[in-house]
Amino acid sequence: VDLDGNAQSSSSSSSEPLCKSAVMVRQTATKGAIMLRLNRDEEWITEMQYFLGRFKKEYVDTGIIPEDNFFWESGGERYHKFLERTKELSESVEFVAFIDHQKIQRVVFEHGVKGEVPLFLDEVDVEEED
User: Fold this and answer.
1) What whole-number distance in Å separates Cα of residue 31 and Cα of residue 47?
2) Residue 17 confidence (pLDDT)
3) Which residues contact 1 (CB under 8 A, 6 or more apart)?
4) How far apart are CA 71 and CA 67, in angstroms?
5) Edge-to-edge strand order for the sheet containing 21-27?
6) Residues 6+ apart with CB under 8 A from 129
7) DSSP class of residue 25?
8) DSSP helix/strand/coil, 67
9) In this structure, are residues 124 and 113 in contact, taking their beta carbons and an 8 Å threshold?
10) Looking at the predicted structure, is the pLDDT value of residue 123 above 80?
11) pLDDT at residue number 107
12) 14 Cβ neighbours under 8 A, 6+ residues apart
C-alpha cells in the first residue's frame, strides 16, 4: 500500500482479491482472547487508504501534531460517510471463538525464570549463559 498516492503494480492477473475476510484476535492480559472474522469491503479499504494517506501527508510528513477529531471538519461529508460505513461494518463482525486465559501460552523460557512469569517480554531480566 502506497500512502503517498503513487500507483502500484499488481502481481496478480485477476482483479478479484484472494482474501475475502480477516481473522482478528483480541487478547487481554488476564481475561483470555476473542477471535473475530471481519469481511472484506473494497470500497471501505479504498477510503481507509485515502484517509491514511491524507493523515500521513498532513501530519506525519510535516511533523504537525494532529488536533482532536482531526478530520471531523476538514474531511467533510466523505469522512462522515467513511465513519458511518465503519460503524456498519463493525456490526457485521462474526464471532469465531473465545480462548480461555488458561489455554493461552504467553511466555516460554528454556531455562525458566525465578518468581512469576511476566506477561510482557520487556519486563524480563534474563541472564545469558556463557
Assistant:
1) 34
2) 77
3) 8, 49, 52
4) 9
5) 21-27, 33-39, 94-99
6) 111
7) E
8) coil
9) yes
10) no
11) 60
12) none
The pTM score is 0.64
Residue 36: which residues within 8 A CB-CB, separation 6 or more? 23, 24, 25, 26, 93, 94, 95, 96
3-state secondary structure of 89: helix
For residue 72 the three cell numbers come to 471531523
Q: What digits encode the pLDDT tens for the residues 20-37?
A: 999 999 998 888 999 999
What is the predicted pLDDT for the residue at 117?
A: 60
Q: What is the pLDDT of residues 72-115, one digit of tens each?
A: 989 899 999 999 999 999 999 999 999 988 888 766 555 555 55
| pLDDT confidence of residue 110 | 56
- Secondary structure (3-state) at 38: strand
Query: What is each CA distance from 50 to 21, 64, 101, 118, 127, in whole angstroms?
Result: 20, 19, 38, 40, 47
